[in-house]
Design goal:
CATH topology of one domain: Alpha-Beta Plaits
Strand content: 15-25%
Bound molecules: zinc ion
CATH architecture of one domain: 2-Layer Sandwich
Distance between the termini: 45 Å
Number of strands: 23
Helix content: 25-40%
Structural class: alpha+beta
CATH superfamily of one domain: Reverse transcriptase/Diguanylate cyclase domain
Amino acid sequence: MENVRIAILIADANQARSEMADAPASAPILRSVEELAARPDCRGVLVDTLSREAAERAVRTMRVHPRLSTMPVFLRTTFDAPEVAAVDGAPASWGILARKAVDILDLLATLPPAEALDQDDALLRFLFSRPGTVIAPFQCYHCEKLYRYPLLEAFAQTQDDTFIWAGSLLGRGVLEPGRLVSRVRLCPSCGSAHLNYIDRCPNCKGIDIRQTFFLHCFTCGNVAPQEEYHREGALQCPKCASALRHIGADYDRALENYQCRSCRHICTEPEVVAMCLDCDIAAAPEDLEKLNIAELTLSEKGRLAVRSGNLQSIYAVLDQLNYVNPDYFARTLDWMLGLGLRYKETVFSLLQLRMDNLPEIVVALGRARAALLMETFAERLRRLIRTTDVSTRTAENAFLLLLPHTEGAKAEILRDRIRKLAEDVELPDKKPFQVSLRLYAFPRDYLKGETADLVFSRLATPDRERG
Ligand SMILES: [Zn+2]
Ligand SMILES: [Zn+2]
Ligand SMILES: [Zn+2]
């Protein structure tokens, strides 16, 4: 890619233009992000301003714009502020800037075309085209979670909780945590990290507690604060009047050393509670939610997801095979397990099919050919399945089939046929179409007390029986 057109965006009308020595005279001078969006010939932009706020505003507008979200964006100066995230630096010369833009655009050109990008796509494509980018957390004392991810905020369509968004991307495995920066504890009620830890009386919950030393009289067993034993410079028990001369022989120090000034309760340890400064709720420290604050990066799975595009539609062909939703499927299975325990003659089987390398296949073949391949496979699968069998999907690439009145040995025959079907799929370069098939037969594989959920997690855990 040569000679890409890069615009100069004057983001602040009151400022003189920067004079980058080698900037081409042909670079379009634009006044707003809207103007930039209307110029598909401009493939990158230099945001020309010395105002941090103006730069931040311009970059954010671009990153949530369906067409500008992955565009190379350069700054006149770095500002040295985390708020101005999701940019490609402040190159010293136009030559460096143009080269960087070409590198980014070259990587973006390897991705499947997309009309308008949603916030997930935009972020993942941005990370993909800027290898090595780290989504770094920044400490921020007035933020709800004490940390923020400015780069995620730049891409978030709404400024709702970017931590929830990060959690969902981590959960899907498209981002992975890197260096752990910190860990915060959150209010279980509102999620705020603004907590005040306060010790209080375990009896009346009052906070006016004092550390006091208590003495324990061996003669009568009296336990009382040390000052109550003082008699004319010596120690004497206020209850039995014995003289306390030798610690260990006449008396010792009691373990209890806190006393509540309100209810006089004595204790060894006050109770500690976390008071939420945002919602005013008191929570025990062990009930606080823990949140790891880590640097985030694009994972291998994320790179694959970006390169193969959204796979939902490709997997969805499997939903045509007597599909029921996962909840209904689980209820049916629970009902059949219950039936099986009552009536000894009940048999049924469960078959799980997982397509392990479909994302790689989509990258290798392209979406259209991969979709065709999946449709062909689903069609052959349909011919093997009876109308009484029901199916569901537990993960995007995991497909479950419930086979009523089918004992283990019969289900194994079906399993082997499906395996054969997968082996017959022809891919270029003799690549295999990798499927894992796992079988659960009732009552053969039943473990006492097992419910549908436990059966699902057993099938989802890889061990023996991998197909
Ligand atoms: Zn008290
Ligand atoms: Zn005494
Ligand atoms: Zn709270």
